[in-house]
């Protein structure tokens, strides 16, 4: 059985838009099929991923500490953070909804940030550690990223589940803006990362062997 060769080893490259295969050439040329720019790797992938990731990490803490909304009625007003909203739902007996909100707004963002951080660090140091598993983790982040906007809907979900009287107001707070920014920045970081960089040190190691 012949050994598996990468596209780079085979001397070809794929168009990111239409998946047409072209002979390996310098980046910046256009696809003969759809006209999209061809690159061996995403331009400045690590730099852009680091920038988006660090910005998302910086905003994650205020997104969970700052209040996301204030509800007001004739009897007074109440300010909620994401975590206090989860606690309110749990104490109110809405265990399933509380679990969904907790996973969507706390667990999944932490998972995405942790995985992306691990990926960019291991690629930065050109690690050859478990490339298959790292590629699968990136695939999981990409799959979860398709549902990332569910995190933003948490604010609307919390607002709709608060039992309000006839005369009431719901006012978004800075935490909602920070939370939405975390979601968008994490998605951009995932889109900027080039998973092919995981395998470049493996190819270099094989050539030296």
UniProtKB/TrEMBL annotation:
The keyword Transmembrane applies. The chain crosses the membrane at residues 50-75, 95-123, 144-164, 176-193. GO terms for cellular component: plasma membrane. It is found in: Cell inner membrane. Pfam families: PqiA. It comes from the Bacteria. This is Paraquat-inducible protein A. It comes from Pigmentiphaga kullae.
């Amino acid at each position: 059985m012949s050994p598996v060769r990468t596209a780079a080893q085979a001397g070809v490259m794929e168009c990111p838009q239409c998946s047409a295969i072209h002979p390996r050439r310098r980046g910046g040329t256009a696809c003969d099929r759809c006209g999209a720019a061809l690159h061996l790797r995403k331009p400045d992938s690590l730099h852009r991923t680091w920038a988006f990731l660090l910005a998302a990490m910086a905003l994650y803490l205020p997104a969970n500490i700052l209040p996301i909304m204030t509800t007001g009625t004739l009897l007074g007003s109440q300010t909620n953070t994401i975590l206090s909203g989860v606690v309110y739902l749990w104490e109110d007996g809405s265990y399933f909804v509380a679990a969904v909100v907790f996973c969507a707004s706390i667990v999944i963002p932490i998972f995405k940030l942790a995985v992306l951080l691990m990926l960019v660090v291991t690629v930065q140091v050109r690690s050859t550690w478990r490339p298959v598993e790292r590629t699968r983790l990136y695939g999981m982040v990409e799959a979860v990223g398709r549902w990332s906007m569910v995190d933003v809907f948490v604010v609307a979900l919390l607002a709709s589940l608060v039992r309000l009287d006839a005369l009431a107001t719901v006012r978004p707070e800075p935490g909602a803006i920070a939370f939405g920014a975390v979601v968008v920045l994490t998605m951009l970081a995932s889109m900027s990362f080039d998973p092919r960089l995981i395998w470049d040190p493996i190819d270099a190691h094989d050539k030296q062997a």
